[in-house]
Structures are given as structure tokens and as C-alpha cells.
Amino acid sequence: AQTVTQSQPEMSVQEAETVTLSCTYDTSESDYYLFWYKQPPSRQMILVIRQEAYKQQNATENRFSVNFQKAAKSFSLKISDSQLGDAAMYFCAYRSPRAQKLVFGQGTRLTINP
Amino acid sequence: DGGITQSPKYLFRKEGQNVTLSCEQNLNHDAMYWYRQDPGQGLRLIYYSQIVNDFQKGDIAEGYSVSREKKESFPLTVTSAQKNPTAFYLCASSWRGTPNYGYTFGSGTRLTVV
């Protein structure tokens, strides 16, 4: 079974600086999908960014980008120019093309210091 | 606007009672899911359904039951057999056959045993 590990329970960063959240996963599959979700205090889960494993190019969405290292099974999220609204829990998730379910990591709570 | 509606937002259960959490979607998604969220444990899958009248157990199905009589609806019943039901419950939906799109989530139900 696939597992997802987020080794940083909490992170903090100064406003306008850059922060990187770590995620590693365990799988024997070669084709899969990876996601980062944001859960602000409202607790609404919001998709931040996604990456297909067959794509070598790292995904980017505005200030959010990933560093996808397939051989190392690593999928980190970089947030540039951090804003107060980025404060949230961030979850890394894995999805196999052969399974419907998403497997989530334990989450990282990100605090933005003004 | 399309989306997922979970109700109620807050729910209180007495010991020994069954309670049902509602989840309705108007996205025409095929698959629906129930996750439980506890502090420090991320999201854990309870049940999921890929088509009407069919559903599968997730990782922590004991003490829960579901039904899928309509494509739009996937209610979750927390039975008295669930010994520690206090948690935040999230419902989600997705297309079948498009694993790269991830899930759309509802806003959640906070269940507390009193």
C-alpha cells in the first residue's frame, strides 16, 4: 500500500519570504499523481497544485511550485512571497491511476509571521 | 454554482445513538468519498463509492455505514459501534477515470459526542 509522509508537523515563515514544505511517499508504481491541498482555518480543502509522475517538468501555479524528484520519491511544495492568507494546514496526497482513493500525509501547519 | 454540500456543520451525539451526516453534490461526479480528520493524523478514508448502489470500505470503516441510492448523495451513518466518533468529517467527490484531477471537497461536519 502506498504511504505519504510529511515530516514537518509545523513550519513558520516571515511574510514575503519563501518556505518549502516536504513530502515523501512510498510506492512501487511508475505512474501516479501527486497533489498539495491547503486547509485554512475555515477547514475547506483547496487544491493548490498537482503533478503527474510521467511529467518531468515541475508544476507551477503562481507563487506555488513543486520540486518533484521521482527517483527519491519526494514532492516538496515551495511557496514564494508568502502572504498572511497562506497560513493553513497543507496536505500532500498520492493517487494511483488504478485506485480511486487519495492517500494523504499527516499535514504541515504553516504559520506566516507579519 | 456546482459544489458539495455537507450538513449539518456541527453535530452532537449522545452515547449509544446513531447519527447521519449528509453529503450532496451537483457536480455530476461519479465517485464520492468520506474521510475522517483527527489532529496529527491527516485524513483517513472511511468509505468510498464509484457508482450508484455500490461502495467499498476504506481504511477505518468499522462503526460506520453508508448508502449510495442516488448519484448526488452519499450519506454517512456513525453507529453506536464507533467508540471514538468525535472528529471532523469531510466528504469529497471526483470523476471516475480522471485521477489527475483530484477531489472536490465539502466544508465538513464537526461531530462531538456529549
Question: Could you explain how this protein is built, in words?
Answer:
The complex is a heterodimer of chains A (114) and B (114). The model of chain A has no long low-confidence stretch (mean pLDDT 94). Chain A has no helices and twelve strands. Chain A has 114 residues and is mainly β. Chain B has 114 residues and is an all-beta fold. In chain B, strands 2, 4, 5, 6, 9, 10 and 11 form a seven-stranded mixed sheet that branches. Chain B has a four-stranded antiparallel sheet with strand order 1-3-8-7, with no helix packed on it. Chain B is globular and about 40 Å long. Chains A and B meet through strand 5, strand 6 and strand 10 of A and strand 4, strand 5 and strand 9 of B.
Q: What's this entry about, in short?
A:
The complex is a heterodimer of chains A (114) and B (114). With 114 residues, chain A is mostly beta strands. Chain A has no helices and twelve strands.
Describe the largest sheet of chain A: 6 strands, mixed
Which residues of chain A form runs of ≥5 with pLDDT under 50?
A: none
The residue fraction in helices of chain A comes out at under 10%
Unreliable stretches covering 5 or more consecutive residues of chain B: none
For this entry, what is the oligomeric state of its chains? heterodimer
In total, the number of strands of chain A is: 12
How much beta of chain A, percentage-wise? over 45%
User: Globular, elongated, flat, extended or rod-shaped: what is the shape of chain B?
Assistant: globular
Question: What value does the Rg of chain B take, in angstroms?
Answer: 13 Å
What structural class should be given to the helix and strand makeup of chain B?
Answer: mainly beta
Distance between the termini of chain A: 41 Å
Mean pLDDT of chain B: 92
What fraction strand of chain B? over 45%
Tell how many strands the DSSP assignment of chain B holds.
Answer: 11
Task: Give the C-alpha Rg of chain A.
Answer: 14 Å
